[in-house]
Amino acid sequence: MKKTTLLSIILLILMFGLLASCKDKEDPDKDDPIDEEIKGWDGEKITYLPEDIQMLNASIPQGYAIVNPENDQSAIIKSLSPELDNYGGVSTGVLTLDFNYAVIFRMDVVSAYTQYIVKLFVEGESEAFYVLSDQGTPGVVSVNVVDAMLSAKYREKDTQPDPGYATGFKYDGMIKNCYFYIMPKGPDGEQRTAELVVSSISITNYKTPAITGVNLTSPLISDGTISKLKGSEGVNLNATVVPEGVQDTAVTWTTSNPEVAIVNESGFVSFVGVGEAIISAISVIDQSKTGQVRINVLSGFENKEDLIDELNGIDFTQGSVQSSLTIFDDLFKTTWTEASIIQALRPDPTTSIAHALRIFTESSGLLIENRFNPELLDHVDEALANQVGDQAMASVELAGRNEHFGTRSAATIYRKIGGFIFKEALTASSKLTVDLKYAQVNGTTWSRPNAYDEETIVVFDDGTVTKYKIAIKNVTVIADYDATDFLNPALWADGDTLVLAPGSVRDNGDGTVTIREENPTAYPYGGIVSNLFENLEDRQMEVTIEVTGLNPERVLWNVRLIYYNNGSRVGNPLTLEASNDTGRFMLGFVPAFDQLRLYLIANGSDISEIAPGAEIKIRTLTFQYIDD
């Protein structure tokens, strides 16, 4: 019996040795492991440099690390996971962490394909806690591990064991053995492609207080805001990391809008453009702690009478001028009064353009998709019906200023289009409209004008001032689905047809359909697959989807791309977008191959409890090229 046990032990040792050697052969470019021990944890700090990172253990899902052969000042962590979720990496050694104090995870990211995940395993837990996820930007990232695990992001997702959202951190005041998983994550559906390049990883557990916040001070701050004229003298902001006694009080400064306000490394703010920006001071040692102040840069024409005078002073030449663009931009960005910021717009109800235009109302105006195609007879007939001179026109109505609202005031409008400003007069009538050119004709040949964005200020004769935005983009529609189309088996099939996760679709009778997952596995997701699109061009494309509901509440909707080459499927479905929000979404991409299918998924696997029968409600989906 003892001989058998000894033989078993020898066989186990040989097996582990073989596995270790196989790990090195997974990647032909991986160097032989360095024959030295990794530096140890001293109870307060450990830093892993590239040569240390390549010695880290493979985690589950599996991965490994190597010193970057192109730059030995960084290491590449690679995923070897065969799963469709496509993430895997390496883990640190066991660290004894004292949760009486802050535990800071810091990583200097060189690049990521495409995201990275960091999890913390604590003794006694069968599952790991998320520390970082859904990130891929380069640079230094640092967080207080406890605060990250308790953040609203993970509480709302509920994707991990509860660290104590409502009751406080469950290991508060305890000393626990832990280790970190550092994992790159590629697009869902790809395999063994995810990579994370880092120059260092460090964990600190200094016996000093945890940072609780960053306070910003300046004599000019009032109610959290600094208001100054464009081009006026800059101001210094002071940042104080609290409480006293923290290990590192350094901060980095950022601006949310450098076209409005810029800030240097010392906190000096300059006011460069009209509008609003947020200046942030971010703790270096714990980037989850930030102090902020709102910057409101004024034009000096916040009084609408002054603004009207300035508009009237613009020197127009033959109806347009380029030299006054800066003045106009400042005036347009000015906040005059809360009641006169954005003018309501709507399509002219007397003009029917059913084929060429798709008009969407947004908070700042209208988004218009110009689908005009001179090769389609119904588009040309429609253009002829709306022809004015050598162009076809569409009208939008200033919906807040017409007979329905008890006013018939005339107006002067100042329109910035294509780098020029146009001044036009609108007479008092039953409605006030603005005409937009969407097609043009030369002889008998019709074409589509270039796309453009319009910013316009409207000055009514009664003294009211408003503004609006119109964005016109040219598109070529490949497929346009409504509720009836989703039910058509010639256009959409059960995902199980292509040996994918199955789903079903049903009509809700209100212009929407419900897609339901019918996947009996532990992680329920599934959906429907479109017909095959072929001969796609290598240029910008867009999927526009209108999601109206989710059931149960935390279900995700997914849009995935299934690529084909010469009729054969290439890899697994790639996630274009995944979300648990409702609304209208425009998802852009450039196709990797000239054939693909769209895969619409109801996904209940983003919650810790199984959610069988995950459902999403969809109203429309459009697949199209963006032409310019």
Highest CATH level, the class of the largest domain: Mainly Beta
- Alpha-beta classification: mainly beta
| Outline | globular
Contiguous helical run count: 8
End-to-end gap: 78 Å
Beta-strand segment tally:
42
For the report, how would you describe the main beta sheet? 11 strands, mixed
What are the salient characteristics of this protein?
628 residues, mainly beta, Jelly Rolls, Immunoglobulin-like, 4 domains, 11-stranded mixed sheet, 8 helices, 11% helix, 44% strand
Describe this structure in words.
With 628 residues, the protein is mainly beta. It contains 8 helices and 42 strands. The longest helix is centred in the N-terminal third of the chain and has 24 residues, at 2-25. The radius of gyration is 30 Å and the shape is globular.
SSE blueprint:
Blueprint: H1 2-25, E1 45-48, H2 50-53, E2 57-58, E3 63-67, E4 75-79, E5 90-91, E6 95-98, E7 104-113, E8 115-122, E9 129-135, E10 139-144, H3 145-149, H4 152-157, E11 175-185, E12 195-204, E13 213-217, E14 225-229, E15 235-236, E16 238-242, E17 251-255, E18 261-263, E19 268-271, E20 275-283, E21 290-298, H5 304-312, H6 325-333, E22 345-347, E23 357-362, E24 365-370, H7 377-385, E25 387-388, E26 391-398, E27 411-417, E28 420-426, E29 433-442, E30 445-447, E31 452-460, E32 465-481, H8 483-486, E33 492-494, E34 503-507, E35 513-517, E36 525-530, E37 541-551, E38 556-565, E39 568-579, E40 583-589, E41 595-603, E42 615-626
Parallel strand pairs: 14-21, 24-32
Antiparallel strand pairs: 1-12, 2-5, 3-4, 4-12, 5-11, 6-11, 7-10, 7-12, 8-9, 8-11, 13-16, 15-19, 17-20, 18-19, 20-21, 22-26, 23-24, 25-26, 26-29, 27-28, 27-31, 29-30, 31-32, 32-42, 33-36, 34-35, 35-42, 36-41, 37-40, 37-42, 38-39, 38-41
